[in-house]
Structures are given as structure tokens and as C-alpha cells.
Design brief:
With about 260 residues, the chain is α/β, with parallel strands linked by helices. It has seven helices and eight strands; from the N terminus they run E-H-E-H-E-E-H-E-E-E-H-E-H-H-H. The protein is globular. The relative contact order is 0.16.
Length: about 260
């Protein structure tokens, strides 16, 4: 089943991100936020995916292609701002509406991070084209670039560093409101999430980044045998690795 939402932890690998300071590096902080949100959305029954699950480098083209080909309806691209300012920002496509980004900002404000603005930006000299690559090149996916605050503002930086889980949860709550998905706070008001299909262990038993990586392999058709879902920490035999590489090569040739 295609995800409703794909979460994009910005930057990664050799790109630390400009929203870094003495307290945190942007790429690491947004990955923590994204993995938390991924786990929570799974608990709430929201079909969700990730563009990256570890500290890896993704080019702009690779990142946009993952989102575009995910089948998702929405994308939240998590970032931390820099350059002077205060508060959270949400940037959306000129072909979308402010409904989702404004609701996410409202929830962040309720969680303690002031909302600065929700806005669009056009490409210089072409008012019919989005400025940001993640809006131009993600196809029909409604992508919101979410800046959680300014890394070079001491108040924002301290809030993000101390309360990143609260801010991450605010976005989960806002998205559930927007999509009219039943919501409950973490650990309250609901039974534990059921085991995922195809033999995967419960989310609480396996880190979210492992589940996301394996899910992606199946979603892309690189893995098809369900037995690997119950052997997440076991090495693949040589023949299975070779088959994954062959299928990946075929996908590249066909793209």
C-alpha cells in the first residue's frame, strides 16, 4: 500500500545543513525528529515512509525522486533555519494551499515555538514555477518544507534542543487534524500499535530506521520474499544481495 505521507529529513551525510550550532547539527536533529514522527504515525495507523533513515548523502535529484515515486499524497520535509529570525516557517508550493502548512505552524506555536510565517516563493523571472527544488520536482505530492526554528537564534535553538520531541509530536497532531485521522497522545488513550504485516516485529521492538529501510526495499520491489522481514539483523546471502543489485540496476535503466 502506498504511503499517505512521506517524511523527508533534510540534508544528511556530507551535507550537515546550515541550521547547525553548538547544540546540534541540522542533519542529525531533523533525522531524530523524523524517526520519531515515523514511529508515531505508524502507531496511529497512518501509512508513512521516509526518504532516509540514517546519516546518508542524498542529492537533490535522488531526494525528490524518492518523494515523487513514493505514491504518497503529502510530504513533510523537515529542516532547521538559519540567517536571522525567530520562529517556525512553512513553505508550500504555489500550486498548493496554505491549509496544511498553517495548521502545522499553529500546532508548533501551541507547543512553544512561535509561528513566523507560511509562504510560497516563485522562481526568479518565472512566476509559474516554484523556487524550491522539493516543490518543483516532487510531482503531484503536496510537499511542505517545515523549518522548526532558527539555529542561530538562542531562544529557538534552546527550544529545539530541549523540546524536539514535543515539537515533533505537534506536527504529528497537526497532520492528523488535517487528514481527520484519529489521534491520541503517545502512550495514552489507545492500545499498543498492532504488529505490522508480513511478519515484522512490533515497532517498539525494532528501531524505526530499520523498519523504514526494509519497508523501502519491499516498496521498490527490491525484496519480495517475506521471510527477510523477520530476519532484520541477519546478513543476506550472496545470491540475495546479487538479486537486489540486479533489480536495482534494472530500475535505473528503466528510469
Amino acid at each position: 500500500m502506498a504511503p499517505l505521507l512521506i517524511i523527508d529529513p533534510g540534508h544528511g551525510g556530507n551535507d550537515p545543513g546550515g541550521g547547525s550550532n553548538a547544540l546540534f547539527t541540522e542533519k542529525d536533529m531533523v533525522l531524530k525528529i523524523s524517526l520519531y514522527q515515523y514511529r508515531r504515525f505508524r502507531e496511529l495507523g497512518v501509512p508513512v515512509a521516509l526518504t532516509r533513515t540514517a546519516d546518508v548523502t542524498l542529492s537533490s535529484e535522488q531526494r525528490a525522486a524518492i518523494v515523487r515515486n513514493s505514491g504518497a499524497r503529502y510530504c513533510i520535509s523537515n529542516h532547521i533555519n538559519a540567517g536571522g529570525g525567530r520562529g517556525a516557517e512553512a513553505i508550500y508550493s504555489i500550486y498548493a494551499t496554505a491549509a496544511l502548512p498553517q495548521l502545522l505552524l499553529d500546532e508548533l506555536a501551541a507547543a512553544g515555538m512561535p509561528a513566523r510565517r507560511a509562504f510560497t516563493r516563485t522562481y526568479p523571472g518565472n512566476p509559474r514555477q516554484d523556487y524550491y527544488y522539493m516543490h518543483r520536482e516532487t510531482g503531484s505530492v503536496e510537499t511542505v518544507i517545515l523549518e522548526y526554528g532558527f539555529a542561530d537564534n538562542p531562544l529557538d535553538a534552546e527550544t529545539i534542543n530541549a523540546n524536539w520531541e514535543t515539537l515533533a509530536e505537534a506536527v504529528v497532531r497537526g497532520f492528523c487534524k488535517f487528514t481527520q485521522t484519529a489521534y491520541h497522545p503517545p502512550g495514552k488513550g489507545s492500545a499498543p500499535a498492532p504488529n505490522p504485516p508480513n511478519g515484522l516485529p512490533a515497532d517498539g521492538d525494532v528501531p524505526a530506521w530499520k523498519l523504514a529501510g526494509v519497508d523501502w526495499l519491499y516498496e521498490q520491489g527490491l525484496l519480495t520474499d517475506s521471510r527477510w522481514r523477520s530476519q532484520l539483523d541477519q546478513p543476506l546471502p550472496l545470491w540475495a544481495t546479487a538479486e537486489i543489485l540486479r533489480r536495482f540496476h534494472e530500475k535505473l535503466r528503466g528510469s
